[in-house]
Design goal:
By secondary structure, the protein is an alpha+beta fold. Helix content is 24%, strand content 31%. The protein has one domain.
Length: 85
């Protein structure tokens, strides 16, 4: 059985970070969750005040409790892994 892990990421090169957000048994639910995370991130980004330090961010993402953003933005994707029972 496959599960679908939604992952957030930000940064590039040595500053690149990835973190798991949520896992699903259904691929369509994972796809929908990625779209929802992206939509909320776009909203957060559009309301951000200009700042010089991305790492001191007090904004929260309701779908991603470990939300992080740097100058490259935040991206969401999903991938499948085999679930061993």
């Amino acid at each position: 059985m496959l599960i679908y892990v939604v992952e957030g990421s930000t940064g590039e090169y040595s500053d690149h970070r990835e973190w798991p957000v949520k896992a699903f048994k259904d691929e369509e639910k994972a796809q929908a969750f990625v779209r929802a995370c992206d939509a909320e991130y776009r909203l957060l980004k559009s309301t951000r005040k200009p700042k010089t330090n991305y790492f001191e961010d007090d904004r929260t993402h309701s779908l991603d409790p470990n939300f992080v953003e740097d100058y490259t933005g935040t991206n969401y994707r999903y991938y499948s892994v085999e679930l061993e029972e």
